[in-house]
């Protein structure tokens, strides 16, 4: 659905009945969606996925071609991160089990109310985006953990110059190494021992 300042969500309709698909297009466009394509077979649906990059797919189970809508949905889910809603007249238990295996975001029985489909689309798009954000958060956390792990264990450090040997065999300053392999930031100061070496006159005067 279109929100002010954003482009409308794009829908791919996979439906072998042209009149049904065109009615669906008109209804969805009235709710602010963009129907980027209408196709009647699984083969055309897979091609349309590459071509028009929809945000969501409405899939009938009985479609033209060698594969039915469930097989087509499975192939789409395996290759594209896009939610699918089944819109069909089939309620057979075996078909439902097959459809469930493709992890759809909805299953609507024909005949349907336009508002019902609109709500299903909104919920599916919201849920999918929440899932995607959670997956990204988990991936980011894993990356951060990997960065922390890089600094665990034994670090080869020179006893004289205090440089650290990195994974490629080069020796780096401690500051550069830690900055490259962690999220740590440095603040610079002078410790008391170094301060005495650098400014002996100050410390000498303070003792008198």
Automatic annotation (TrEMBL):
<feature type="domain" description="Response regulatory">
    <location>
        <begin position="10"/>
        <end position="125"/>
    </location>
</feature>
<dbReference type="InterPro" id="IPR050595">
    <property type="entry name" value="Bact_response_regulator"/>
</dbReference>
<protein>
    <submittedName>
        <fullName>Two component system response regulator</fullName>
    </submittedName>
</protein>
<dbReference type="GO" id="GO:0000160">
    <property type="term" value="P:phosphorelay signal transduction system"/>
</dbReference>
<dbReference type="InterPro" id="IPR001789">
    <property type="entry name" value="Sig_transdc_resp-reg_receiver"/>
</dbReference>
<dbReference type="Pfam" id="PF00072">
    <property type="entry name" value="Response_reg"/>
</dbReference>
<keyword id="KW-0597">Phosphoprotein</keyword>
<dbReference type="InterPro" id="IPR011006">
    <property type="entry name" value="CheY-like_superfamily"/>
</dbReference>
<feature type="modified residue" description="4-aspartylphosphate">
    <location>
        <position position="60"/>
    </location>
</feature>
């Amino acid at each position: 659905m279109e929100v002010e300042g954003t482009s409308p969500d794009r829908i791919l309709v996979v439906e072998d009945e042209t009149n049904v698909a065109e009615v669906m297009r008109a209804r969805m466009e009235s709710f602010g969606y963009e129907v980027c394509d209408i196709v009647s077979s699984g083969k055309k649906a897979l091609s349309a996925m590459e071509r028009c990059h929809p945000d969501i797919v409405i899939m009938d189970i009985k479609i033209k071609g060698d594969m039915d809508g469930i097989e087509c949905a499975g192939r789409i889910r395996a290759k594209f991160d896009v939610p699918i809603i089944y819109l069909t007249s089939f309620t057979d238990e075996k078909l439902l089990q097959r459809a469930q295996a493709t992890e759809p975001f909805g299953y609507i029985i024909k005949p349907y109310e336009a508002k019902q489909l609109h709500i299903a689309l909104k919920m599916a798009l919201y849920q999918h985006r929440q899932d995607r954000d959670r997956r990204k958060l988990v991936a980011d956390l894993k990356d951060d953990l990997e960065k922390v792990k890089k600094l665990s264990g034994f670090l080869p450090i020179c006893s004289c110059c205090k440089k650290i040997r990195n994974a490629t065999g080069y020796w780096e300053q401690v500051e550069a190494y830690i900055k490259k392999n962690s999220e740590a930031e440095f603040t610079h100061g002078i410790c008391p021992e170094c301060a005495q070496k650098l400014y002996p006159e100050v410390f000498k005067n303070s003792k008198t």
